Every structure is written in structure tokens, then in C-alpha cells.
Amino acid sequence: MLRPWGLLIALILVRAAGAQGNPFDGEPIADIQFSPRQPLDPADLAKALPMKKGDALRASDVAAAIDGLFATGRFTDIAADAEPSASGVVLRFEVQLASFIGDVVIQGRLSAPPNRPELQSALQLSLGAPFHDQDVAAAVQTIQQLLTSNGMYHSEVTSQIKTDDELQQVTLTFQIKEHKRAHYAYPVIQGNTLLPEGTIVHATGWRVPLIHLWRQVTEGRTSGGVRGILEKYQKQQRLTATARISNLDYDNQKNKVTPTLEITPGPKVEITALESKVSKGTLKRYVPVYEENAVYNDLLVEGQRNLQDYFQSKGYYDAGVEFKQLPPEGDVEKIEYTIARGRRYKLVRVEIRGNSYFPASVIRERLFLQPSALNLPHGRYSEAFRRKDEQTITELYQTNGFHDVKVTTSADRDYHGKSGQVAVVIHIDEGAQWAVDHLDVKGVSEANRERVTRRLMSMAGQPFAEANLASDRNYVLAYYNSHGYPDANFEAAWSPAAAPHHVDVTYTITEGDRQYVRQVVITGLEHTRRSLVDRTLGIHAGDPLSPTAQLDAQQRLYDLGVFARVETAVQNPDGDTDHKYLLYTFDEADRYRVTIGVGAQVADFGTPSTTTLAAPGGTTGFSPQGSLDISRIDFLGLGHTLTLKTAYSSIEKRASLSYLQPRIHNIHGLDVTYAIIYDNELDIRTFASRREEGSVQISDRFSKTLTGLLKFAYRRVSVGSVIIPVLLVPQFLQPVRIGMLSVNIDQDRRDNPANPTHGMYNTIDAGIAGGFFGSQRSFARVLLRNATYYHLWGKVILARQTRFGVIEPFHVPAGLDPQQSVPLAERFFGGGADSIRGFGYNEAGPRDIGAPLVPGGPASQPTGFPLGGNALVFNNVELRFPLIGQNIQGVIFHDMGNIYTSLRDISFRYSQRNLQDFDYANQAPGIGIRYKTPVGPLRLDLAYSLNPPSFNGFGGTPVQLLQCNPNLPPSALPSYCQSTRQTLSHLQFFFSIGQTF
User: Fold this and answer.
1) How far is CA 489 from CA 442, 446, 468, 484, in A?
2) What is the mean pLDDT of residues 859-879?
């Protein structure tokens, strides 16, 4: 802070007067006063003033006090005066207080671009920084310039300043009145473009094709037009082309902007490879002139190195590359890379000798050199890799105390007399290991000593390495900084000890003054309750001023999901005070979020039919899907979320209303969700399932990868459109109440849940329903899943998944067998794009084979419709590999498994025993294509079932089925009552979104 010249002169006069005999000099100080007030914390005030009440007045002390007060940064002007009083002298400081930037608010309707975050970033008004009156005018000008560059030439910007005298803080509000955005006009094109004007205008993208309407002006569109022109020239190999906008001429009457383009196309650049064949794509990948769009010598040299490394990685270890830039000929500039590949080798062995401290496996995992393998047919070798590996091993040993280690490599060509084979031997001379005899840590207070010293690397008895000194320095300074000591200093020194290769280490630490939070200042809240912010922050007045805690609190506030921006800073960060205001300012996110989804599925599935029982295995169908989700976030200002989700398709109609209460007891990841659901599923050929459910769920995130939830659901399930006689028994048609308590454990170590390439995913889902929960059916349910993903080579991924599930009924109602006691809608159903692709949707497992309508009576006519089961085993294996470009991936897969009648019926047999046996393992290999999109890969799968099930089916109508009285002799039955053998299709086709698993 610069002191005014008048104050400097006054201070000199005060000191001179003191030297000549000030009449107040030596008088006791009766009181110290500030006018209009002093803003410092009492501890900071005592630190700034070298005198106190009762001390003798000294001019030198007054000068030191003015210096100390200015150093706090909270004053812009200070003058000292003294006047006599009955008990001595009253020392009075006349002060002008500094102001600091608080919240910066941008108001008004604004059509992006620019958006509000862009405007706030452009203003460069840093939260907590000193405020000056000229900052407002500069900010208004900046906003106006940004609006103008985005075509809003007539927009108006006004400002308002609101001052908080207590906090010395100002809130700046900028009101924007938006006007109509300008459009582009036909540009003025200057230079020998070598292209028609129409081609250049089309490349800019400023005009809509075909209809030739000019687009609105935006800064991004303007710069994008220049890039479009350059890309047009680059496609013609004119890599040195330049294009710039020299002027944007605005027509106020027409509200149009005429850009002036200055274009220099430059010559065509032809880069060729001599003596060795190199594809154009390889040259573009390794010669950076294509990426930089410039022809500089250093880029050509980099290309030379890249090409040499490329050929060495292909086994041409002696490859040499030279380049020559030929003089331009007409409109062409040629660059020739002469590549002498030499003999091709194969690295067959990498041997490590001389190592005793580290096992060879630890060293090998750090090496670039790799012997030949399936994914590296010629191994990986180059002189650069050799040097890099020598350096890597050297650093590994040095960081573990081997100061004198020496690492060399030698290559044995024509290894064991075999032409073209190479073996590399890495020789390691470890030398002696240095160790720390004694560590002396000076300057640490007793309160910090244990926590500072317990994680140091250079402890007595540990290996000595200078890298460890640097690590200790980083750790110590990070510790002090995170605990409120911003001025801490660390110095390290070492000296030889008495024993050879042993040292004594001394750390000298200067802690400095500790800083504290004076007050947490919150601004910008409109709808959110202050109590939610305070509870989430976890920082209070009097806490140490920790940047780590400050940023952690900022992240917790973002995690609430109710703020679009959370900015934090320390007010007056450079001021010499130990008690500082900690600032948080907020922009609340939009409270309503609406998501509309549209999709479709193509596969074998069907819906219950009241007119025909044909095709119990389903038919190929197209199911358009739509969804509408509406969320109200920050409900009641508490950070809660109210969400309505709906989905509608020909196979499912679903609606749910949920209420999320996050961070129970302010524990991150501990959430409670209340939900009511209505679901009407028609994707099972046998029946329609309707579910009305209410549930409460508690979820907790135990770690980054491990989550768990406990859920109690009470639902009413019913079936409709039932079309097989065995299910016409009233017990199965009546709605059933289910009360279930379930627990789910989820471990997710995948790199990308939407499209994983490596990692692991495990889930355990277990639940129990019984009369003790008010349930009319009693059963236990367990579903386990394990999936893993491996990189094989390049971008080839091996993905596999195994799922196992079982439902075990108990307290079975009289008159029902165990399988029948589990309601249809609660059983396992499988088959389709996400389970076993050898079946259509929900077509796996047991089927209707006919059953007595009354106990002990004859069996009814079998229909062959799926009934679901009480056990499942699925195993999926996929090999995913690049197919075309970056976005299209190919898949080879094999699915195995089935839905089984019960746990005791699980079998991995390949074939059915008879037409009533469905407890065997279906095998379905296949191929697929994945197309990468922002919402996940579009998936097309074609599966071939090697052993689809056969069964007896019925091809008539439900009315005819009811006329097939099983009590009549076969000769008296109509012809349509005769069962027909049916087999599910070998081929299954699926189109959907997202990976299978």
C-alpha cells in the first residue's frame, strides 16, 4: 500500500519535532483512539501497535504504529494526532478504511454467448482483493466489449455498488439490458486467395447453406470462421496459409457486421518419404508440421526424431532419418525425409544383472524396453528407450540411498547365432547404500512435533537420498500451510557421520505466525438456507486458516448439487494480519431441471395378447421409447431434491416420484430416499405385470468405490392379461402384497461406468419378504454379480461378467408348491440385450407345459409361454476391439446360462432331456458393433443360439384354449387342441444403447 506524499512529509515533521523536544514526548498515553473506527481484530491491533495505554509517548513509536497499521492492508490513509488530557495524552489516529471485493452479481436477461460465468471470468474482479473506484468503470467497459464481440452492439450496462462498512466489503451489481444481436454480412475478402469467394464464404460457416441467410454474430462463430478457412487450405496441403480478420465494420442501420478477411494461401507443402515406404497417415501422425500448420526447422527436426523412434519401435533398430527442405518450385514447397531402415531385428530377451536390493520384477515393470510378445511382435527397443531405462533405474536406486550406483546396457545382436535376434543386458553396479544415522528437527513447537515428524522419510536407520530431503520439505510445508502457517520455512542440511556411507541430517523449521478464521462471510444466497451452507462448510470462526479445509469445503458445497458456482477466497490475503475473513460467494443453480429422452429397441419381444397364443417365444418388434424427468432441486432451501420420472413405450409404462434427503447428520454419502412407483410392464409374453410401490432407502458411500444401501419396500403386485390356464386359478389373479427388506453392496472400480475398459464391478443384492413385514408371500432373494475388464493389447478389451441369483420361498401357503408361492412378477426373468442374447427379451427359463386345473386332475393344454424361475446363472464374455476409426468398435461375444426352476435344478448341461426340461445351459456366440455417442455406445448385436429350447405350444386363441377340456378323450378334442412342437429361433437381433455390462 503506497502512502500519500503528504503523509510522508507529516511523518518526517513528527519525527523532527520529537528530536527537537516534542511537548508530549514522554507523557503517558491515557487512551488510543481511532476515527471513524478501527476494523482490526484485537490481537492484530495489538500486533500492529508498539505502544499501549500507560506507555510513554514516543514519536518513533507513533511512526512504527503507522507502519504497522498500513501493513495490515485495511487502511488507505492514516494520520496521527495527540492532545492533552487530565491523565496524560490521548493519541488519535484519523484513518480512511480500505474496501475489498465481495460478491459480483450480473443481472438481466442474457442470451448466451456470452454466459454469466464467461462475463464474471472476464471481469477479473477477484473475490477478497482490494477494491478501487476505477475498477467499476473498467468492468463496465469489459462487459460492453464482450457483448459487442458477440454482436450485441446496442446492449446497455449499468453498475451499482453496495457497501458493507462492518466487513469493509463491496457488492458489485452489473445490470445488462440486452438488444438484438447483429448478423453477418457478405465479407470483404483481400489477398490472392486461389479459391473462389463462394468457397471461402462457405468455409466460414457465417451463412446458412442453400437458403443463404446470414447467421447471428458471436465471438466463437467469428473465430470459427477463420479456422474454417484455414482448414480448407490445409486440406489442399497449404500448411502455411494465414487468415485473419482485420476489421469488423458495423452498419448501425441494418444491424449487420461486415468482416474484412486478409488471406495468404501460401504454397502447397508436400512431405514425402524416400527409400522406405511410409503412409500419408503415418507422416501426418509423426511430423508435427501438420498439427502446428507451420513449417519451422525445429518441427521438421522433431518429425525426424519421431520417425526414427517409430521405425525403431517396429524392429529397425539401426534406422536413420534425414530430411531436406527443397527450394520452392512454383506453388509447391517439398520436404523429403530419407529413411534408411536398415536391418530388422527382434528383441527376444531383456536380462538384468547385478541387482540384489531390488528384485528383477520391480525393475522390469519400470522399463520401456520390452521383449517380443503377442502385442509387440518385434519387441520395443530404441536407443532413446535404452537411455531412458538407464536413467529410470539409476533414479530408483538413488532414491533408496545408492548414491554411487552405475547402470549400463549392452546389446547382443544375432543372439545365440540367430540372425536378427537381439538380447539386451542391463548391468547394475549398486555400490554402497547410504543411511541416516541421526535426524535433528529444530524449530518445531511441541504441539506440532509428533505430527510433523511421524511421516518423514529421512529418519534414523532409513536409506539416505537427497530426493527424500525434497519429499520431506514438501510434506512439512504442506502440513504447516494446511494448518494455518502460511509463512513456514524449511531448510535441510546433512553432513557425513562417523561411519562410512552414513550421514547426519538436520532440518531447521521456522513456523512463523499462525493465521485464523476471523469470520466466515457468506454472500449470494437467495433460496438456499444459510443453515445448510454452515452445516456443510464445517469451518468456524477461530479455526486455523487452512487452504486445504477451505477447498475441501468448496467441493462439499458443489457436491450438494444446488450451486452453479461456489467461489472462495481470503479477504485481504496479503495484509499483515493473523485473523482474516474467509469469503464464500454463490450462484445458485436453476431449481428446475427437465430431461426429455427418446429412444427405441429392436428385438424379439412381445406383449400379452387376447386374440392369439401363437409365437410364445415372442416376435421381432420395434418399441419406441420416450421419457420425461422433472427435478426440483434445493427443495425448501434444504438441498433436498424432488423428482418425477416417467417412461412410456409399447413394452413398459412407468412413473415414479422420489424425495432425496442427502447428507443425513451431515455425513457425505449418507442419503435417504423416499419413493412411490407405478410400473406396468408388458415385455413378458405370458402376462402383464403391474406394480404399485412405496419405499424408503438409506444409502451410504463407504469409500470412493464402495457404496451400500438398505431399503424397505412395500408393494402391491398384480398380473393381468394372463393367457395360460394354469394361471387362471384365482390365487394367481389376485393382487399380492409384498413387504421386503433388502440390502445392496456395490463395489465399482471401473474407469468409465458407461463404457469401461479396465477395472472391476461387484454387486450383492439380498432381500427377505415375510409376514413379519406384512407380506402375503415369504421368500428370500439373493443376486450376485461380478464383472472384470482387461486391456489385452492396444485398444483390445476383454470383458467378462458372471451373475448368480436364487429365490428361496418359505412358509409356503397351503395348496401351492414352492415355485408357485413366488408371485409371477417377483420371479427371475431373463433373456435379451442385457442378459443372455440367445433368447428374446424375458424368454429364458421354464415354460408352461400344462398343469392340473384342480389338484389331482388332468393337465391343461400346454402353451409354451415363459413362467420365470427361482434361480439364474448368466456368464458373458466379450472381446471388444477397434473396427473403423475412433468411434466404431467391434465385439465378439459368448453368452451362457439360463433361468432355472430352483437352486436345486441348476445344470450346465448342453441339451434338453425332453420337451418339458428347461433347466440346462444355453450357449450363444455372436458378433456386435458399437458406435460411440455422448450418451453411451449405440449397440447392435447378432447372437446365434447353439441350443435353443424346444417345447409344446399352442397356436390358437385364448377362447379356443379354454375349450380344450383336458377331461375329454383326445379323439373328442378339436384339431386346434393338439399341441405343436416349437423351437425358439437360433438367431436373435438386438439394437439398444449402452454396453451389455
Assistant:
1) 12, 17, 17, 13
2) 88
C-alpha dihedral (604, 607, 609, 614), degrees to nearest 10: 20
Architecture, CATH, for domain 346-429: Roll (3.10)
- 844 touches 828 (CB < 8 A): no
Residue 818 pLDDT exceeds 70? yes
Rounded mean pLDDT, 880-906? 93
HSE, side-chain direction, 13 A CA sphere, residue 140: 16
Question: What value does the mean pLDDT take over residues 841-866?
Answer: 75
Distances (CA, A) of 622 to 602, 886, 974, 975: 5, 29, 35, 33
Classify domain 100-177 by CATH number.
3.10.20.310
- Provide φ and ψ at 26, rounded to 5°: 90, -10
Three-state SS for 617? coil
- Core vs surface per residue 370-389: b (16+ CB within 10 A) or e: ebbeeebebbbbbeebbeeb
The yes-or-no verdict on residue 281 having pLDDT over 70 is: yes
| CA-to-CA dists, residue 913 to 111, 155, 224, 895, 909, angstroms | 69, 81, 68, 21, 9
Tell me what pLDDT residue 603 has: 64
Distances in whole angstroms, Cα of residue 825 to Cα of each of 715, 812, 870: 11, 17, 12
Could you tell me the CA-to-CA distances from 308 to 283, 315, 652 in Å, in that order?
12, 11, 59
Confidence of residue 484 (pLDDT cuts 50, 70, 90): very high
Whether the per-residue pLDDT at 1 is higher than 60: the answer is no
- Could you write out the DSSP letters of every residue in 822-864? S-GGGSB---STTS-TTS-TT--S-B----BSSTTSPBPPP--
What pTM was computed for the model?
0.79
Predicted pLDDT of residue 493: 95
| Cβ 66 vs Cβ 51: under 8 Å | no
Mean pLDDT for the chain overall: 89
What SS3 state is found at 976?
helix
Mean pLDDT value across residues 645-666: 90
pLDDT surpasses 80 at 903:
yes
Of 262-271, 407-416, 770-779, 952-961, least confident by mean pLDDT is 952-961
Q: What is the pLDDT of residue 980?
A: 81
Which architecture characterizes domain 516-589 according to CATH? Roll (3.10)
Tell me, what's the pLDDT at 852?
A: 59
Q: Is 67 helix (H, G, I), strand (E, B) or coil?
A: helix
Residue type, 988: Q
Distance of CA 774 to the CA centre of its chain: 43
Can you identify the CATH homologous superfamily of domain 5-97? membrane protein fhac (3.10.20.310)
Can you name the CATH fold of 183-264? Ubiquitin-like (UB roll) (3.10.20)
- Cβ of 246: how many Cβ atoms within 10 Å? 10
Residue 847 has pLDDT above 80, yes or no: yes
Spell out the residues 6+ positions from residue 482 whose beta carbon is closer than 8 angstroms to its own. 546, 547, 548, 549
Task: Say if CB 845 and CB 920 are below 8 A apart.
Answer: no
Query: Residue 500: its pLDDT value, please?
Result: 93
User: What CATH topology corresponds to 595-993?
Assistant: Porin (2.40.160)
- 31 residue type, one letter: D
CA atoms in the 13 A half-sphere facing the CB of 409: 25
Fold of 436-510: Ubiquitin-like (UB roll) (3.10.20)
Is 487 strand, coil or helix? coil
DSSP string for 932-967: --TTS-EEEEEEE-SS--EEEE--S-HHHHHH--TT
What are the sequence ranges of the domains in the chain?
5-97, 100-177, 183-264, 270-340, 346-429, 436-510, 516-589, 595-993
Q: Name the β-bridge partners of 173.
A: 105, 160
Q: Is the peptide bond before 970 cis (omega within 30 degrees of 0)?
A: no
pLDDT of residue 416: 85
